Request: fold
Amino acid sequence: MAVTIKDIAAAAGVSRGTVDRALHGRGDVSEEVRERVLHIAEELSYRPNRAALGLAALKKAVRIGLLLPSEGNPFFDEVIRGARAAEESLSDFGAAVVLESVRGYEPREHLRALRALAEQGANGICAATVDMPEIRAEIDALSADGVPVMALNSELSSCGCLSYVGCDYRQTGRIAAGLYLLLGLSEPSILIVTGSRRVRGHNERVAGFLERLREAGVPFSVAAELECEDDDAAARRLTLEALGAHPGIGCVYVAGAGVGGVGQALREAGLLGRAPILAFDDIPAARSLVRSGGIPATVCQQPFEQGYRAVKLMFQYLANQAVPPARWIARPVIKIRENIDEKDGEA
Reply:
């Protein structure tokens, strides 16, 4: 027998009206009650009357906003391709994806993009954005206005996000540390090049990496931690400066993008292949460095699948009131020279 709102209300000890508001993001419902209702709905495998809701969706196009820091960052090319594939699969239902692309991680630009998507009539937004108070406040305001926001690619601290679609950054940082341990480096001075400290995922990648090395009890030191804003030119300049200021660096850990710039700096310093780069993602610069031996392995995170799943889950929520999982985590994939040219599985 199909689970109903009445069943959820009985299990949660609240009224059917409260369940309806919690499921659909309407009205005043405390966070504790909302979480309890959503948890029970997921446990009971609640699904609304999809036929009726699907017919309602057909009468009005569903516009899904996509905010990505994709300008100058090739990682997001595959995220966009996945989102467009999902859009195409939903075209019969009138679904459309509206993209706002920004460069870097300046909160004002991300705030502008969120507001621009709302002004363009986005019914819901999938956002790869910075974990800053003003962004979280804007997401709360959008949610209160009936525009749900899903965190995409990088998680956000506590706010009104519908759910999270992306990778487990702390775990992928620990995987990178495992690769470091396998290398058995004799010069344990590490240079860390991160993307932005405003991005929770980048911070967790650094934390997971250092956490695992400390657990292993191996000797290591961090020469410096640089912030390149996922920009190759900045990564090159900062890495060259750090190599000059800290002789003896034995490894460079790139926690965000900018790996092309790091590789160029090591090449100019005569260290490419001698000081290995630990990096992430299957992008052109990383592939080239894996083939040449500058990167022993790169840890990938299914970007196509992230874009595809985010749009699909948001559409299902908007059209069918299907509550998405609190977290959809991409499977990490390690690529080395022997499989760097293989395509990841797609949805």
